[in-house]
Specification:
Elements: H1 3-33, H2 38-43, H3 55-64, H4 66-97, H5 101-113, H6 122-135, H7 144-167, H8 172-180, H9 185-196, H10 198-214, H11 217-222, H12 231-234, H13 246-267, H14 271-280
Helix pairs in contact: 3-13, 4-5, 4-7, 4-10, 5-7, 7-10, 7-14, 8-9, 10-13, 10-14
Length: about 280
Amino acid sequence: MTMRRRIARMSGSLFMILLGLVFLVPLYIMVINSFKNRAELYMSPIALPTVLRFENYLDAMDRMNFVRSFSNSITITLFSVFFIILFSSMCAWMLARTDDRKSRAIYFSFVATMLIPFHTLMMPLVQLMKWSRIYLGIPILNTRYGIVFMYIGFGMSLAVFLFHGFVKGIPISLEEAATLDGCGRFGVFFRIVFPIMKPTVMTVLILDIIWIWNDYLLPSLVLNGKDLRTIPLSTSSFFGVFTIQWNEAMAGLTMTIIPVVIFYFCAQKYIIKGVVAGAVK
């Protein structure tokens, strides 16, 4: 390797390190300010705290009703992601294996919905949910299963797109062999096809957990009761009309992102493999 190529490679590595540090600056500011009092925070937001004030986290947990909010977020996220993966994988498998005009139209309908911004659907969605409660007696607004139902609908499009591309790369001969051995349709899917989908399953799992856990807009429209608030909704209690408790807010936000960061680092090796396998095949 020539000297010029070594310099170019070192320069590229240095640039990526600096770029990574730039992206970590907001995280650094959030964490260090979560240990300060208000006076110290306003004095220098980027300086390290003189004393680590863990009471900010205790006050934030009490103000957020953290245990209740955390359980709500866990329940909504897990159920939503479970049904998104289950329904979208089955749907994508059927669409990929019945390659006719009808299945292609359904598949492209899923892909087309990915282009619709959520903000254009907010008000019609709320009106529809009110209509379902009044005329059908189905209370979707202000319920956990109602918001899970909505997350399934909004999360299906991307998941079907990823699973569909992956299924097309699975040899159909494996399914034919399983059928000859006596497997029914569900047996072929859950014993043969679904285990092979593991990289894409992990990709959908990671993307949807991060999305649903951090989502603020949809829960703010659907969940009005204090006992139903998720973690992002509970952080709004720090931001009043006239005052903002920045140190407690930083502590609350730090606690909010810790579960997602831990989960992401445990499963990150699957995400690139799954995206490439699902979108390129």
